[in-house]
Amino acid sequence: MTSIPRPSLKTVPLYQLAALLPISGVLMLLDAVAACSVLVGGLIQVAPQAWFASQAFKYTGARQTDLVLRSMYRGETGKVILTATLFAVAFTLYKQWDYFALFAAFILMMPLQWLLTKRILKH
User: Fold this and answer.
1) pTM, to two decimals
2) Contact 33, 98 (CB under 8 A)
3) Alpha-carbon gap, residue 44 to 118, rounded angstroms
4) Residue 17: other Cβ atoms inside 10 A
């Protein structure tokens, strides 16, 4: 009997953080508000996606199809709720964001995630 190995997608958020933290660090030298905005925007994308990945790949195998499907739905629902909640908390707790930097970091983390995921699944 053969089985498909579980992909090691838990490393994707670590690689995203490895890209996000130096960028925020360099920006901190130039503009602290922009640096914090980039960091928070990136984390708002990375954290919910990490939750989804942990839920989506919790189960494997044809005999656990129901569990896999439920886990995928739970992961996607949690990701959407986490994203909305993190944005709401960020906008409620602090008003001085560089909104362009925040949303740019949020959006730019997505293609980085896709590229990293593609590369991991390829190997």
Assistant:
1) 0.85
2) yes
3) 21
4) 16
What is the spatial distance between Cα 60 and Cα 113, in angstroms, rounded to a whole number?
A: 22
Q: Which residue matches tokens 């005999």? A: 63
Residue 97's alpha-carbon distances to 18, 33, 38, 94, 109, in angstroms, are: 22, 6, 9, 7, 18
CB atoms within 10 A of CB 20: 22
Q: Where are the domains of the chain?
A: 16-118
pLDDT digits (tens, 9 = 90+) for 44-77: 999 999 999 888 777 776 677 788 888 889 989 9
Q: Which two tokens stand for residue 106?
A: 């949020």
